[in-house]
Every structure is written in structure tokens, then in C-alpha cells.
Write a structure and sequence with these properties.
The chain is mainly beta and 347 residues long. 4% of the residues lie in helices and 45% in strands. The strands form 9 sheets. The chain has a 4-stranded antiparallel beta sheet with strand order 2-29-28-27, with no helix packed on it. Strand 11 and strand 12 form a beta hairpin.
């Protein structure tokens, strides 16, 4: 195992120091399956801010639901009890989708997305369970919600202005009590790149997200010897950040040093503010990467393949993530991480 881990990290060691207890840089780093049940699909891991719990989405027990378990392992328990089916646009019954749990800063409740009322909307539920509270009820789809560090705001992607468009999302901000019983959410981005998967910086000053990165004046190859002006369809998602107080977005990935033909998803900001983990797909191979926020340099963390949806543990020394094996999805954890960039080491 140690030899394989050293190979996994060799590409990053030139610019990244992996400081860990033990005789070698990677000696303390371990990859293990936290939930590896081939009879169920477990995904979307979300560790609680207090470090005690791990929420996730699963079809164990039938249907799509949010489950919760002790962060260090233990018996999972079902948190939500969403209806198994809902009436679709054509009047036929279709399976309910339940996904992307995220925690309130006090670890006492969670946000999740459900199609229980037809469209994708945001709900809140206490840690102990109970009746979910609807926070949004808009047209289109409301997706991955995230609390601000002080718990007063929620950022989320919404396609309410272009509900029939695949790339019609913008980021919105709403009060923590929601827009169903509070003021309407206000639009935060005005992007042509369909931003998604937003997260807050630990100091609350930035929102990080992914968006399609393209230039509509650029001509690109679209296959079959054909060319076209670049659009969202013929471009890749990259990681951006934007000041909460207002201002231009800043692209964090997709620079000259990044590998070509890559697409980036699902950013996660470490609690100390120094790192952003994300999933990167290069020619069909999906792995975990991190961005050094100080230098904007991106480094590979795994070469396991089929690894995506990273989420930092509160102490910043572990990454929970999803691994895919055919139709099966399992939750894994990389433990013992302690990343220090050369730029910081010199300071």
C-alpha cells in the first residue's frame, strides 16, 4: 500500500510537500472504503462541521434518500422519508430524486434537494429527522445549496429564468430561513457559463463554483472535421471564484499549466482556507485534485480513477469522496492528508 501511495503522489511532489507523520511523505496517508456495499448506491458525502457525522445520499432501503452515520464509521440511519414516486409532467408516476446533503454551520440541521413537489427544490431537515421544511419553490431546478459560514445565507444554482435550458443556471443567494417564508432570492451571477456546485470560503468573502469556460468568438473543432463558434456545449467546466461583495469572477483552473481536455467539478474549500479540492476528468479518467489558493496552482491527489465529489473533513486532514464502479457508487476517505505548498513553506 505504501509503495502505491508513493506512486500516486510522485507527480505532485515537485511542487507540493506532503507533510505527514512517519518516515516517508506518504506513509500516513491511507485510502479506504468507508461504505462499500455493492447492493446499494452511496454518494454525495457530507461531513458535519463538528466532525461527528457523515451525511450521504443512498438508495439503500429502496428509493433515493438522505442517510447519516458516525463520521468514523458505524451503522447508517435513514434521515429523510421522501415519497418513492411523484407525478411527472406527463401525469405518470416517476421516482423521486433526493440528493446533495449539506450541513448548517452548527451541525444541527441539513439542506438537501428533492423532487417531492415535482421540480428540484431545497429543503431543510433537523439532524434528528422529522418533517422537512421547504426553502424554495421556484420554477426550473434549484440545486446544490450551501450555507454561508455564519449561517445567515444560502447560495444555490437555479434555472428559474431559463427552466427549459440545460445550461440556464445562475447562482442565487437567499436568507437562511428560505424564500418560501422570506424575501425572494437575489441573483448573484450573470454568467453565460451555467455556474453550479457553489461553496463559500471559510471567511465568507468568496463563493467558489464551477462554470463553463468559453469564448463565443473562438472557433473550435466539434468533431467529424467540423468547426463552430465555441458555446457552452463545446466547452468544459472550470473552477471560478467571485467576491460576495461584488466584482468580477476569477478563473482558478484552465490555465496554461493545466492538462488539456480536462473538465473540473464539485469544488470543496478546506476549513483553513488554503486549499480547494475538486474532481477532474481527463479523457474519461476521474481523479481528485487540489488548488493551492495562495498560488492558484492545481495538483493531483489521486490516480485511483473513478474518484469524484471530494469533501474536506473539518480538520483538513481527510477527504471524503465517491468512487464509481460501473453502476455502483461507494464512499471512500483519504486520511492523513496534511498539505503544505512550497510557496508557503518559504514564507
Amino acid at each position: 500500500m505504501t509503495r502505491r501511495l508513493l506512486i500516486l503522489f510522485s507527480a505532485a511532489l515537485a511542487s507540493l510537500i506532503l507533510v505527514a507523520a512517519g518516515s516517508s511523505p506518504a506513509a500516513a496517508i491511507q485510502f479506504r472504503a468507508l461504505l462499500a456495499d455493492t447492493s446499494s448506491r452511496d454518494t454525495d458525502p457530507a461531513p458535519s462541521p463538528d466532525g461527528k457525522w457523515l451525511a450521504f445520499q443512498s438508495n439503500r432501503g429502496g428509493g433515493s434518500q438522505i442517510w447519516i452515520m458516525p463520521a468514523n464509521g458505524g451503522k447508517p440511519r435513514q434521515l429523510t422519508k421522501e415519497p418513492a414516486t411523484v407525478k411527472g409532467p406527463d401525469g405518470k408516476m416517476i421516482p423521486t430524486r433526493v440528493m446533495t446533503p449539506t450541513w448548517a454551520p452548527d451541525s444541527k440541521s441539513l439542506l438537501f434537494v428533492s423532487t417531492r413537489a415535482g421540480g428540484y427544490n431545497i429543503y431543510s431537515i433537523p439532524l434528528e429527522g422529522g418533517t422537512p421544511k421547504a426553502l424554495s419553490a421556484a420554477a426550473g431546478a434549484q440545486r446544490y445549496p450551501s450555507y454561508s459560514p455564519d449561517g445567515t445565507k444560502i447560495v444555490f444554482p437555479s434555472s428559474r429564468n431559463q427552466p427549459s435550458s440545460l445550461y440556464g443556471f445562475q447562482l442565487y443567494l437567499m436568507d437562511a430561513k428560505g424564500e418560501v417564508n422570506g424575501p425572494p432570492a437575489r441573483q448573484f451571477t450573470r454568467s453565460s457559463g451555467s455556474p453550479g456546485h457553489p461553496i463559500w470560503s471559510p471567511d465568507g468573502k468568496w463563493i467558489c463554483y464551477v462554470a463553463k469556460d468559453f469564448d463565443s468568438t473562438r472557433t473550435v473543432d466539434i468533431g467529424g472535421g467540423m468547426q463552430a463558434k465555441q458555446s457552452a456545449i463545446f466547452s468544459a467546466f472550470r473552477v471560478f471564484k467571485k467576491p460576495v461583495a461584488g466584482g468580477n469572477e476569477i478563473r482558478l483552473t484552465g490555465n496554461r499549466t493545466d492538462p488539456g481536455q480536462a473538465e473540473d467539478t464539485w469544488p470543496s474549500w478546506s476549513r483553513d482556507g488554503k486549499w480547494i479540492a475538486f474532481g477532474r476528468n481527463i479523457k474519461g479518467k476521474q481523479n481528485l485534485w487540489v488548488i493551492d489558493v495562495l498560488t492558484s496552482q492545481a495538483f493531483p491527489v489521486t490516480e485511483l480513477g473513478n474518484a469524484l465529489k471530494p469533501e474536506w473533513s473539518p480538520d483538513g486532514k481527510s477527504l471524503y469522496f465517491t468512487r464509481i464502479n460501473g453502476q455502483d457508487e461507494d464512499i471512500w476517505v483519504a486520511t492523513g492528508l496534511n498539505l503544505v505548498s512550497n510557496a508557503r513553506a518559504r514564507k
